[in-house]
Amino acid sequence: MSIGMIFECGPQGADKQVCEYLASQLRPGKKLISRTLDNKLRLLAEAASVAKELLADGCERVLVIWDLRPAWPDKKGKPCRAAERQSLLNDLHTQGLHGQPVYLICVEQELESWLLADETKLEAFLSTASHAYEVPRIRKPDHSPQPKAVIGNHFKAARGWRYEDRVHAVKVLRAGPLDLPRLRRSSSFARFEAKLI
Prior knowledge:
The chain is 48% helix and 14% strand. By secondary structure, it is of the alpha/beta class. A 4-stranded parallel β-sheet has the order 2-1-3-4, sandwiched between helices. Helix 3 (81-94) links the parallel strand 3 (59-67) and strand 4 (102-107). The longest helix has 17 residues, at 40-56. It is globular, with a radius of gyration of 17 Å. The mean pLDDT is 94.
């Protein structure tokens, strides 16, 4: 049996890389089947039909994963997790998937909230042998309104680098062993972890 995951990014997107890496660490040996839908609008429109296909292909569960605050926000106003969730639930019901093992995981605010949850990995990645870089602990990373900008500022301050999520996000996570208590400071990560099992 396998786990299906649906993302709002492209085939090499940071969300896909990070979630697949975390899933491989949390559920070693489990086969992962990912589908990417390029952006949030497409994910909201097509995730239910893709979830149906993944379940039909033998996935034991499907996780639909999206950022509350996407890289290219919709111009219609502030994103609303409740409205997005309800839209997806309605589509799942229309597809006949009510009660099926399809789980919705809205990452607050962005994937980088998970990186901020474990500052030790960020420190390890940005430090050099001659210069240790310290990252302040954030107790509630999901409440940081612009986590991608915070990570970008750390990259610039520590190494003069420009943060690129597709290149750096998974490398930060791989900078040390998983520290689940720290990562669980992000409630969206905790939900991701719970729904993998």
